[in-house]
Design goal:
Blueprint lengths: L1 H8 L2 H16 L5 H21 L4 H13 L1 H12 L5 H9 L10 H11 L1 H14 L3 E3 L2 E5 L2 H13 L4 E6 L6 H15 L3 E7 L9 H9 L3 E5 L17 E4 L3 E5 L16 E3 L2 E5 L3 H15 L6 H4 L18 H4 L12 E7 L7 H12 L3 E5 L3 E2 L2 H12 L3 E7 L5 H8 L2 H7 L2 E5 L2 E3 L3 E4 L3 E5 L3 E2 H6 L2 E7 L3 H13 L2 E3 L10 H13 L4
Parallel strand pairs: 3-4, 4-5, 8-15, 11-13, 12-18, 13-14
Antiparallel strand pairs: 1-10, 2-9, 3-6, 6-7, 7-9, 10-19, 11-16, 14-20, 16-17, 17-19
Length: 525
């Protein structure tokens, strides 16, 4: 409750300042009101020019322009506190100070050279995202797709059971229940055996589900547990949350996708009908991409550096890339030597960051849509894209690409769902097909493009995910996993209703007016 109150209180200073200023103008400064109003107008104009000339999304700019022009004093203060990317500096300073140990496997050059011989344009996209994020490209050896959290959960437990050196977890939501209690019990057992167990969770994401008392209980059991960007005071970094989701065991297996650590994600609790989520298990050298992501964040925000010897093998020992993957089938983890799997396409696992001048996933999806020739199919729980991504969806559909989007049929947040609907008319009119999942809520995040490229990760097609959150995503090319993504999309679509203009999507004047208002405030949701 204390964290909720602090969130509400974060905007009160600006509101109170505007009220106080209005009272002063009416009662004490009335003789100079005209001059003061002129000075404020000039200052507001300066702010407006500053925002207009910034490289930012148009909808985000419009929102702040309206706020500042309507309430010059409090609007400017709110922008300085929460709207300007300069407020990310405290987080950026800590991340920049985090130093990764030397010796990570990096197949970027080799993988990109091979990919360029197969698909030069896609190789350029991989190289672009690599340069943008600093995350390496790997040859994919072993990736398995899970169409539901119900199926992913047992595989996660099995991987934890086999842990020998470390278990790293990073999640947006943690909530006690059947899923988390089972995992926490195993983690405590592993910590007692000497395995290094660390968990990073988002303080705001777990606002009402995981308390400091819960975290202290873990720490008593030998598990290092840290909350990301805790809400201890009102600060400009409030908006920037850790929405990443990853479980890494011994540097040989990693799990990611949309699944958080709460019972609705594995359908043990029906909050919004059937919960449709997806995830994947990764083994082989590419796991180091996820290990790097976690280690960098932990070194920046965990209060202590992860020992290099924990995540990298000693000199002369077996490299992590050649170690058998925990959680793998029995034939691989038996006493006989494991054979290196054949290459299965390419993978680039990266993380989004509001600290960068360019939004990696937004840029990636625009790139993929530009290269699509047959189809581009997306899962997303929320649909509030920025201007550039919306135009990319529209352009792809208008040039004949089969663009489809699967959305929830039962919303988790009714206002956000209605805001998502405000984007339907423009997209449907351009030929984009939108489907809503009748059995319940779709929390899956991913896409498949022409059967040759696709993503699975934590990125929603909304402003907060694309521009404000830390996210993680994996881009695949030529991987057999993409066949499973496509099959799952079609199976899910069969349980959906198609949205049609004039049938189940309104297009009247009042709907248009409401949609316009909602679109302005979409960046806040």
């Amino acid at each position: 409750m204390g964290k909720i109150i602090r969130r509400v209180l974060s905007i009160l200073p600006a509101v109170l300042l505007q009220v106080l200023w209005t009272a002063m103008l009416l009662y004490w400064l009335a003789p100079w009101a005209g001059l003061i109003a002129l000075a404020l107008s000039v200052l507001a104009l300066v702010f407006v020019l500053y925002i207009i000339t910034k490289r930012d999304e148009g909808t985000y700019k419009i929102l702040w322009l309206l706020v500042i022009l309507s309430f010059p004093l409090s609007g400017a203060l709110l922008y300085l506190l929460f709207g300007d990317k300069r407020t990310t500096r405290p987080l950026k300073k800590r991340l920049d100070a985090a130093r990764l140990p030397e010796g990570w496997a990096d197949e970027t050059e080799r993988a990109c050279e091979q990919l360029a011989r197969q698909d030069r344009r896609m190789a350029e996209t991989f190289c672009y995202i690599h340069e943008l994020t600093g995350c390496p490209v790997y040859l994919n050896r072993d990736a398995s797709y899970y169409p539901l959290g119900d199926a992913l959960f047992p595989a996660m437990l099995e991987a934890i059971r086999q842990a020998r050196r470390f278990v790293f977890l990073e999640y947006f939501i943690v909530e006690p229940g059947e899923m988390w209690n089972a995992m926490a019990g195993l983690l405590a057992q592993k910590a007692a055996e000497g395995v290094d167990v660390r968990m990073l969770y988002d303080d705001l994401g777990s606002l009402s589900t995981y308390t400091r008392a819960n975290a202290r209980e873990l720490q008593k059991k030998g598990i290092r547990c840290v909350s990301f960007n805790p809400l201890r005071s009102i600060k400009g970094t409030l908006n920037y949350r850790d929405h990443r989701k990853m479980l890494i065991v011994d540097g040989t297996v990693a799990f990611s996708g949309g699944i958080n650590l709460a019972d609705e994600y594995i359908n043990r609790l029906a909050k919004h009908g059937h919960w449709k989520d997806v995830g994947f298990r990764l083994a082989g050298p590419a796991v180091q991409g996820y290990t790097r992501m976690f280690v960098q964040f932990w070194d920046a925000f965990g209060g202590e550096a992860v020992p290099a010897g924990l995540v990298l093998p000693p000199a002369g020992k077996t490299p992590l890339a050649e170690m058998p993957a925990v959680g793998a089938p029995a034939a691989i983890t038996s006493g006989s030597p494991a054979h290196e799997p054949a290459d299965d396409g390419y993978i680039l696992s990266y993380y989004d960051s509001p600290l960068r001048p360019s939004a990696a996933s937004n840029e990636l999806y625009i790139e993929l849509l530009a290269q699509a020739t047959e189809y581009a199919w997306f899962f997303t729980p929320y649909l509030m894209p920025g201007d550039a991504l919306q135009e990319a969806l529209v352009r792809a559909a208008r040039r004949g690409v089969d663009v489809r989007i699967i959305m929830p049929g039962i919303p988790d947040k009714k206002l956000v769902f209605r805001m998502s609907h405000s984007f339907y008319p423009v997209l449907l009119d351009a030929g984009v097909k939108i489907y809503e999942y009748i059995p319940g809520f779709v929390h899956a995040k991913g896409c498949v493009i022409d059967g040759r490229a696709g993503t699975v990760g934590t990125v929603n097609l909304d402003y907060r995910s694309l521009f404000l959150h830390f996210e993680n995503n994996s881009l695949f090319y030529g991987a057999s996993l993409l066949k499973d993504v496509k099959a799952d999309f079609l199976a899910t679509q069969a349980q959906c209703r198609e949205m049609k203009l004039g049938k189940n999507v309104r297009a009247g004047f009042w709907t248009w007016t409401l949609d316009g208002i909602l679109r302005i405030f979409a960046p806040l949701c």
